[in-house]
Design brief:
By secondary structure, the chain is of the alpha/beta class. The protein contains 10 helices and 13 strands. It has 2 domains: 201 residues, Rossmann fold, CATH 3.40.50.720; 89 residues, UDP-galactose 4-epimerase, domain 1 (Alpha-Beta Complex), CATH 3.90.25. Helix 5 links the parallel strand 5 and strand 6. Helix 1 packs across helix 7, helix 4 runs parallel beside helix 5 and helix 6 packs parallel to helix 8. Bound molecules: NADP nicotinamide-adenine-dinucleotide phosphate and ligand G4F.
């Protein structure tokens, strides 16, 4: 029997990799997209003829119930969110509407339309924030440090609450940072690899960053979507940390990315105080031993391999843009 998956946030980084993975497993894959005046399917353009799309918005309860009734999914992956941490200080209420209450709207639609649907919630290591222990595990105390982190804590707990209240198969994957050539340009890994390509190809002379000392557990998005699927195939619902178990600083990230093209990062990187966050998550490193043991999951790409993959992809993309005279980027304040 072909299984059907509904993915919210299919136009995002993770949505695109998850859709590819589920198609390869023989799923019927339906993506929920919100209405916009411009087309935002860049990340799924290469597979769009094998997908179905349905309009819906996490802000609109009726559209979610409608999508579930129309699509009749076996599995729902809730990846949609306002996912950029700095924006959550500028737009804290909207972030709460999407990233926190949006989860309740979708869970409520699942409960009312078909409570047998299996539900995945995209929880985040940002929930650990001011970390209570190192490394962080499923039961580490939560102390979020941004409106985004707070919203994710709400989404996490409401998922557990619907599981306990209504016996839904609803699980949270607590995923540490995961990156790829499809990462949004505002996130630090992609900001660095894009700048390396622009500097190397003569389009830029410097890179302005915020906190160079903060440390993250960075993995490859293509590895992490496999874990999302595995979590919904278990006999019993449970939550898992997904991480590499290694942590690296933003400085190290710069070192690996610039040296890959023969440049010294210290000559190009400038600290811009405007990019330092009001409250920082200084150190994240996850312990995914439960996922390794129970899901049989492990990452296949290490930190250096990931950064090199992203630099290579940005070099190719910027070269192509130069050839077509499209190498300009907009300046967005606070990014
Ligand atoms: P992303 O690239 O920013 O994608 C976010 C997606 O959410 C986009 O498809 C966006 O659609 C959609 N969206 C935003 N608001 C929406 C709304 N109101 N209704 C419907 N769709 C909406 O994020 P990502 O990196 O793929 O992350 C996927 C999920 O995992 C997010 O929930 C994120 O918070 C979480 N997470 C990510 C990481 C990570 O390191 N990547 C780690 C832990 C957790 P548009 O294209 O229309 O904007
Ligand atoms: O790449 P970032 O913006 O990712 P952040 O804040 O860790 O959040 C990402 O990962 C979370 C999982 O832990 C997700 F839930 C979330 O949706 C998102 O995908 O920043 C990483 C670090 C931060 O400490 C930041 O202060 O890099 C530091 N940084 C230093 N300079 C910068 C910059 N980050 C950005 N975006 N831009 C800078 O110029």
């Amino acid at each position: 029997m072909t299984k059907t998956a509904l993915i919210t946030g299919i136009t995002g980084q993770d949505g695109s990799y998850l859709a590819e993975h589920l198609l390869a497993l023989g799923y019927r894959v339906v993506g929920m997209t919100r209405r916009s005046s411009t087309v935002t399917i860049e990340r799924i353009e290469h597979i769009v003829d094998r997908l179905e799309l349905i309009q819906g918005d996490l802000l609109d309860q009726n559209s979610l119930a409608y999508a579930l009734r129309e699509v009749e999914p076996d599995e729902v992956y809730n990846l949609a969110a306002q996912s950029f941490v700095p924006t959550s200080w500028n737009q804290p209420v909207l972030t709460g509407e999407f990233t926190a209450l949006g989860v309740t709207r979708l869970l409520e639609a699942v409960r009312q339309v078909d409570p047998t649907i299996r539900f995945y919630q995209a929880s985040s290591s940002e929930m650990f924030g001011k970390v209570a222990e190192v490394p962080q595990r499923e039961l580490t105390r939560l102390h979020p440090r941004s409106p985004y982190g707070v919203a994710k804590v709400y989404g996490h707990w409401i998922t557990l609450n619907y599981r306990e209240s209504y016996d839904l198969f609803a699980v949270s994957g607590i995923l540490f940072n995961h990156e790829s050539p499809r990462r949004g340009l505002e996130f630090v890994t992609r900001k660095v690899t894009d700048a390396v390509a622009r500097i190397k190809l003569g389009l830029a002379t410097e890179l302005r960053l915020g906190n160079l000392k903060s440390q993250r557990d960075w993995g490859f998005a293509g590895d992490y979507v496999r874990a999302m699927h595995l979590m919904l195939q278990r006999d019993d619902p449970s939550d898992y940390v997904i991480a590499t178990g290694e942590t690296h600083s933003v400085e190290e990230l710069c070192g690996v990315a610039f040296s890959h093209v023969g440049l010294d990062w210290q000559k190009y990187v400038r600290v811009d105080e405007a990019l330092v966050r009001p409250a920082e998550v200084d150190l994240l490193v996850g312990d995914a031993s439960r996922a390794r043991a129970e899901l049989g999951w492990s990452p296949t790409v290490d930190f250096t391999g990931l950064v090199h993959m992203m630099v290579e992809a940005d070099l190719a993309r910027v070269e192509e843009a130069i050839r077509h005279g499209k190498a300009k980027v907009p300046v967005v304040h606070g990014v």
